C-alpha cells in the first residue's frame, strides 16, 4: 500500500478519521441543543413564565422573607417602585434593592392590574396593599401590559438573576 509501512498504520489512520468525524457530529449536536435551549429559555422569559432559575430565586426569597412580610402594616399604600408602570426604570433605582425587594417590585407590576396571586408570599403581601384589587380576568399576558411594564419586568428580572447568582 502506498504511503503506509504496515497494515496497522493504514487501520490506525482510518480509525483516527472515524473518531474525528464522530466527535465533530457530537459537538455539532451539542451546539444545536444549546442553541435550542437558549431560544426556549429566552421565549419563556418573553412570555412572562419564569425560568427554573427564576422560580428557585422566588422560592428561596419567599422562604427567607416570610417574616418580613408580616411586618408590613395592614392595608399599606406603599410601593417598592412607585412608578414602574409609567416610566422605564434605571440602574440607580434598582441597584441597591435586595433580591426580595426586586421580586416584589417585579410582581407589583402585575398586582397593579389585579393579577390574582395563588402562592405566598405574594398573596398576602399584595392583599395587604390598599391599592390592590384582584381582577380574575387579568392573566399577566404580555399583550395586557404596556411596553414600559414589559421593559421593566425584564429589567428587574435581570437584576434579580444577578443578585441571586
UniProtKB/TrEMBL annotation:
Pfam families: YARHG. This is YARHG domain-containing protein. It comes from Clostridium neuense. The keyword NAD does not apply. Keywords: Membrane, Transmembrane, Transmembrane helix. The chain crosses the membrane at residues 26-47. InterPro entries: YARHG_dom, YARHG_sf. The keyword Transmembrane applies. Residues 77-161 form the YARHG domain. It comes from the Bacteria.
